[in-house]
Each structure stands twice: as structure tokens, then as C-alpha cells.
Amino acid sequence: MIDLYYWGTPNGHKITIALEEMQLEYQIFPINILENDQFQPDFLRISPNNKIPAIVDQNGPRGEPISVFESGAILQYLGRKTGLFYPTDEQERVEVEQWLMWQMGGFGPMLGQNHHFNKFAAEKIPYAIDRYVNETKRLYNVLNKQLIGQKFVAGEYSIADMAILPWALRYEWQGIQLEDYPYVKDYIERLTARPAIQKALSIKVG
Ligand SMILES: N[C@@H](CCC(=O)N[C@@H](CS)C(=O)NCC(=O)O)C(=O)O
Hints:
The chain has nine helices and four strands; from the N terminus they run βαβαββααααααα. The chain has helices spanning 10-21, 41-46, 71-82, 90-105, 109-120, 126-146, 159-168, 182-192, 195-202; strands at 2-6, 26-30, 54-57, 66-69. The longest helix has 21 residues, at 126-146. It is globular, with a radius of gyration of 17 Å. 34% of the residues are buried.
């Protein structure tokens, strides 16, 4: 059994998608980040950076519970644990990891800043909006190019796609016209047709 500390955000969705795709048994513990649950001492023991998602795998590698925070590290852990969606061949693994890290370092943090300044900030600051919308467009161009001639970012469907999709689903918040990125549009359609992804995205927590 895997305990998932979760709220329904893109970073949370990555892990429900992986758990559903890998058919792992899990239970959700809601961490309401709008009510500051993420600062509770019990949660900080698992996730010291006070962010969701985090997991506790009751059956860790030493037969004892293990906790993991940071969505990229969780995806890698689950991929190694199951042997699914995370190739063991070194060359294929590097392909997956570079796109996973691309998401973790760019197509997530930058889009999060975009959401903040473009959608949520009470004060509209043109410099900040332009900066993050332009960076978002640059990242969508990179993704669009990578998807020319292939269905997934790194060969076969992998944990990298599970990390990227939830952020791409928020394109409307980001000032993105999907028609400008036709390969990303097809990618979103291809991935959201998967039953495991539909199930993960239908979970109503947050
Ligand atoms: N790099 C982290 C980012 C996680 C993250 O930003 N989580 C947000 C929700 S999407 C959160 O918990 N925010 C609460 C806070 O910052 O206090 C990861 O990928 O796990």
C-alpha cells in the first residue's frame, strides 16, 4: 500500500497518473495547501519542503516504510519499484531522465510563475506576465519540436510524459493557443484517451 499525500494540482496529478498506470494500491491523504496543511509538523517530517506530492510506501526496499518527496523523485522511485515506464537500458533511461528533468526544471516552475502572474495575481504586472508567458511559449515550442515524428517525448510512453501532461493541460491559464503547437495538441489528446489517466484526473481532491 502506498500513502499519497496529495492535492489536485499538476504536481499531484503526476503521481495519481503513475499510480493508476502502474496499478499500484494507494490511499490518498488530502493536504489542503489552501489551508496551510503543508506546514503541519507531521507532513513536514515526510516532505520537508512543505509541498505536495509526497508518498510513503509501506513496503519499501528494506521491507520497511520509506517516504519520498519531490514529484520527479517519486516517479523515478515508482518506475524502479515496478519496472514500468522507466527503462533499465542506460541509453533509454537517459532519454527519459533528460525530459523528466526538463519538466522538473522548466515546464513546471516557469508555468507555475505564469499561472501566478497571468491568472492569480491581483496586481497585473506586464513585465512579469510577458516574461513568464514568453518563457512558456518557448517551452511549448521545444516540446512541440520534440514530438514531431514520435508519440511520446522519450521513445516509449514513460514517467516523463506523466510529468509533462498535467502542466500542458493548463494551457488556457498560460496564454497558450494549442493550435500553435499541433504536436502538443495531438499529444494531449493521445494521453488523455488513456483510461488510467482519465481515472487519475477524475479524482476530486482539491
Ligand atoms: N518541485 C516540487 C514542486 C511541488 C509543488 O510546487 N507543490 C505545490 C502544489 S503544485 C505545493 O505544494 N505548494 C504549497 C506551498 O508552496 O506551500 C515537486 O515537483 O514535487
